[in-house]
Design goal:
Helices cover about 45% and strands about 20% of the residues. It is built from twelve helices and 13 strands. β1, α2 and β2 form a beta-alpha-beta unit.
Length: about 325
């Protein structure tokens, strides 16, 4: 009869010892310096917000640069060749986690390592980019956050801003997998609605404004995806639309204050915080391949009344009322 309490006490002691050991492991994980290498294809407000959100989430979880975290950020400056060089350097450095922001940076990283954990972000279609097969845990060294666009919801915004639009213009980089995927998705949805997509290619950032000018007279509204060439020089696209009185609709909220009439999209800083949560899980011992990729579902509608006036658009009170944020 006396063995019961003794066993109970023994189990309790083991449980306490286990908890202390786990606590020690966690404390050790936070105390030791971790190395997070971060690369972005180009620096513009949306991708910068992903980077900053990721870093802030790490700090919030106790990983502080200069104390127990080495934060190594490098930009490819919009150059695919530099993105490849950064990928080789990062793999050679063998950090604890590599964060790759935007498709042209993520693809060479994923191709260069099968062992270092990679967390992608700022990517609309990771399947089209061939980073993962689906949203399930990859079983490889790759996971990440996506801002995949829902073409049905994007079309709803276009119709609410320009109800009579039939021809939708788009400037995009045909060499960026995400841009091509998003273009095909919105094209299919426009065709269902009896509308057409008028395309203009911009392989480089300097091609964006000339490509936009080539669409004047051919379209009723301009729509942009999260194409990095376009977003990096969004002001030049907005100027073309202002001068030609073409309504400009974006798909990332950061482009609204840069001249778009409206955008229904993710908050890229919030996307970065969610990316940071994945990085923290890996730093604390989880395998990247056990963490499912995830699309961000936190959409927000931003509206710019000043841009609407410049581009000859009258916004309905109901549309303005539905906005998350209205800029004047």
């Amino acid at each position: 009869m006396r063995s019961g309490p003794v066993l109970t006490i023994s189990k309790s002691l083991r449980a306490i010892a286990g908890a202390l050991a786990l606590g020690a492991v966690c404390a050790s994980a936070l105390a030791a310096e971790k190395v997070v290498a971060v690369t972005s294809f180009v620096e513009h407000p949306a991708l910068d917000a992903v980077r900053d959100g990721t870093k802030d989430e790490l700090i919030a979880e106790g990983f502080e640069p200069g104390k127990n975290l080495k934060w190594d950020f490098q930009s490819a400056q919009g150059n695919a060749g530099i993105a490849g060089q950064i990928a080789k350097k990062f793999v050679g450095d063998n950090p604890d986690v590599i964060v790759a922001i935007a498709t042209p940076s993520a693809q060479p990283i994923v191709a260069a390592t099968k062992t270092i954990p990679v967390v992608y972000s700022g990517i609309a279609d990771p399947m089209a980019a061939q980073l993962v097969k689906d949203w399930k845990p990859s079983g490889t060294n790759v996971t990440g956050m996506s801002h995949m666009l829902d073409p049905v919801k994007q079309l709803e915004v276009i119709k609410r801003v320009v109800p009579n639009a039939k021809r939708v213009g788009i400037v995009y980089n045909p060499g960026e997998a995400n841009s091509v995927s998003a273009l095909n998705n919105i094209k299919a949805e426009l065709q269902k609605a009896g509308m057409t997509l008028v395309e203009a290619a911009a392989p480089r950032s300097v091609d964006v404004a000339p490509a936009a000018k080539s669409l004047i007279g051919k379209i009723d509204v301009m729509y942009t995806t999260t194409d990095n060439n376009v977003v990096s020089v969004f002001e030049s696209l907005a100027k073309v639309c202002n001068d030609a009185k073409i309504p400009l609709i974006a798909s990332d909220t950061g482009s609204v204050k840069r001249g778009a009439v409206a955008a229904l999209g993710v908050n890229f800083y919030d996307l970065g915080r969610q990316t940071g949560k994945m990085v923290v899980r890996i730093l604390k011992g989880e395998k990247a391949g056990d963490i499912p990729s995830s699309p961000s579902k936190n959409l927000e509608l931003y509206v710019n009344t000043s841009a609407a006036q410049k581009q000859g658009v009258t916004l309905s009170p109901d549309f303005l009322k539905s906005a998350t944020k209205v800029l004047n």
